[in-house]
Amino acid sequence: MSEFRVPKYRGLVPYVPGEQPRERRYIKLNTNESPYPPSPRALERGRAALDTLALYPDPTMAALRAAIAEDLGVSPDWVLPTNGSDEILSFAFAAFCDADTPAVFPDITYGFYRVFADLYGVPARVIPLREDFTIAPEEYFAVGGTLFIANPNAPTGIALPLTALREILLHNRENVVVVDEAYVDFGGESALALLAEFENLVVTRTFSKSRSMAGARLGFGIAHPALIADMTAIKDSTNPYNVNRVTAEMGIGSIEDRAYFEENCKKIIETRESLAAGLTDLGFSVLPSCANFLFIRHPRIGGEALYTELRRRGILVRHFAAERIRDYNRVTVGAREEAEALLRAMKEIGETI
Ligand SMILES: *Cc1c(COP(=O)(O)O)cnc(C)c1O
């Protein structure tokens, strides 16, 4: 740290992304990327856009917004595309949280919420999940701040039923409620159905997981136009050109290729279920997942030890050295062959430890 860093940022603890190792080839099951490439249609449109890179992108992202809006059955002024969904979350923190309006989220959830709260200097009110890592809806009534709920949740994979989410919304009419649907395409119930009823609801989505575009950085928010205007004001005050031309065209291509998207989601759900069964057979407890990852624990092998043993065998998973979850590992559901390799390694580890 230099002497020039301003005091308010000296204690900043940044988000720590999963490793992206270069020293050897790993089976990478640590950052919930897709094992499949982007849609051929997305690649084709992205390549064509390369020729136009001398020009700035359309700051209103009209074509991409129209494509997203049509796909989801909303009007384009309900959509704001961003540089990954982390950026729409960042805009939501900037627009809807301050010293008097804390950020409210569960104790076990996406680690970035805490980081954004610290970055923007807003207090965080943390509400513990139940012992089984589910949300007790009544504890999230009248939270007195801006509520962030990942649904399905990370790193547990557990989904909150729409009926419970609606209860939470009914009791938070005074607060903005942000529902982070990064994993919804793998089996969760979307809060989009509640948008017409709740003008205080923001739904965030990403192309990083189910649409195989983590490296292109594309996400978006869907909300009432007044909330979209609030977040657009933040975007236009930081980076009006937040989504580049190639990524925007890839996004349109991905949406056009619905069959490819649905097929990939289906394959991942099938692999998830067979991987969960295989791990259960090996003695693991596996939390019920509606995402593209499993949160697992072995009765005899500690979380960190399991992480290390897998790494030695060329498989990367994600271990969080945090209270309540240090005995667990989060394992991305990869391609079928990757899941099979994981099961073989787990069997070996179980036999030697
Ligand atoms: C991966 C993830 C995101 C953001 O991913 P982007 O690549 O920035 O779109 C947001 N929320 C959760 C819960 C995630 O797991």
How many distinct beta strands?
A: 12
Strand content: 5-15%
Strand order of the largest sheet: 2-8-7-6-5-3-4
**Which structural category fits the helices and strands?**
alpha/beta
* Overall geometric form: globular
Proportion of residues in helical segments: 25-40%
Give the overall average pLDDT: 97
Q: What sequence of helices (H) and strands (E) makes up the elements?
A: EHHEHEHEEHEEEHHHEEHEEH
Q: List low-pLDDT spans.
A: none
Largest sheet: 7 strands, mixed
Radius of gyration: 20 Å
Figure out the total of helices.
10
Bound molecules: pyridoxal-5'-phosphate
Separation of the first and last Cα atoms: 42 Å
Describe what you observe in this structure.
With 353 residues, this protein is of the alpha/beta class. The protein is 36% helix and 14% strand. The protein has ten helices and twelve strands. The strands form three sheets. Strands 2-8-7-6-5-3-4 form a seven-stranded mixed sheet, with helices on both faces. The longest helix has 24 residues, at 258-281. The chain is globular and about 60 Å long. The N and C termini lie far apart (42 Å). Residues 32, 84-86, 110, 150, 154, 180, 182, 206, 208, 214, 219 line the site of pyridoxal-5'-phosphate (PLP). The site of pyridoxal-5'-phosphate (PLP) has 13 residues, from helix 3.
